[in-house]
Specification:
By secondary structure, this protein is an alpha/beta fold. The protein contains 9 helices and 12 strands. The chain has one domain: 2-enoyl-CoA Hydratase, Chain A, domain 1 (Alpha-Beta Complex). A hairpin with a 4-residue loop joins β1 and β2.
């Protein structure tokens, strides 16, 4: 199966690899999040969750980046409603990945900065490159403050030992540093990232019971998911 959706700021395509859905995103640049791109990703999670023959999914970026974060033209454009819509959509997407009823594996094909790093934190397993890429939360360095939902997932997934350096000090890390900090679970040769992510996803699809996985996610992550939901709704209300 192959499907491609033009989202207005890039292309989201999907293909089946056995019982794994591989979703690739490539806007021809650094994969900056837009509302249409986030909606297209959300729709792919809908597809994975609705199909009993899909046991896991992989989200992969392009050769340059996994995701570069939010579109800074919007963030710095001064339109409060547009900013709120974009940031809220990003929070909802990270939360959606973290609460998905199917395992979500990240194929971090390059840089993953700001909201791109946050999406890594929302995935079950994260494969990245053993290379001099930039991965992390650089918001403080560019005069931005993380929203509450981002703080919540950061505290949940990042190594406690690295939390201050990663969040308050805005440190960007290479592939191996990202493993140590908690953005990634493993770093492999850059040309093997997608294949390794597919391998991990196939193993999860084969070994995990779908119903038990979904129920365990609700029990294990429920408090974090509820906190993220509440934060996103506050952000939407404030921007209205």
């Amino acid at each position: 199966m192959s499907d491609t959706a033009d989202n207005g700021n890039g292309t989201v395509s999907a293909e089946r690899h056995g019982d794994v859905l591989l979703v690739r995103v490539d806007d021809g640049k650094a994969n900056a999040f837009s509302v249409p791109m986030l909606a297209a990703l959300d729709a792919q999670i809908d597809t994975a969750e609705a199909d009993d023959e899909i046991g896991a999914m992989v989200i992969a970026g392009n050769d340059r980046a996994f995701f570069a974060g939010f579109d800074l033209n919007v963030i710095r454009g001064g339109d409060r409603a547009a900013i709120g819509e974009l940031v809220s959509a990003g929070g909802a997407m990270v939360r959606r990945a973290y609460g998905s009823s199917v395992p979500v594996v990240a194929a971090c094909t390059g840089h993953a900065v700001a909201a791109g790093a946050l999406l890594l934190l929302g995935c079950d397993h994260r494969v990245g490159p053993d290379a001099q890429v930039k991965i992390g939360l650089n918001e403080v360095a560019i005069a931005l403050t993380l929203p509450d939902w981002a703080m919540t997932i950061s505290k949940e997934r990042l190594s406690r030992r690295h939390l201050q350096r990663c969040v308050a000090n805005a440190r960007l890390l290479d592939g191996n540093g990202a493993v140590e900090a908690g953005y990634l679970d493993e770093a492999v040769s850059p040309d093997a990232v997608v294949d390794r992510a597919l391998e991990v996803a196939a193993e999860l699809a084969e070994t995990l019971d779908a119903g038990a996985y979904a129920g365990t996610v609700r029990a294990l992550r429920g408090d974090v998911l509820a906190a993220m939901d509440a934060s996103v709704e506050r952000d939407r209300a404030a921007a209205a």
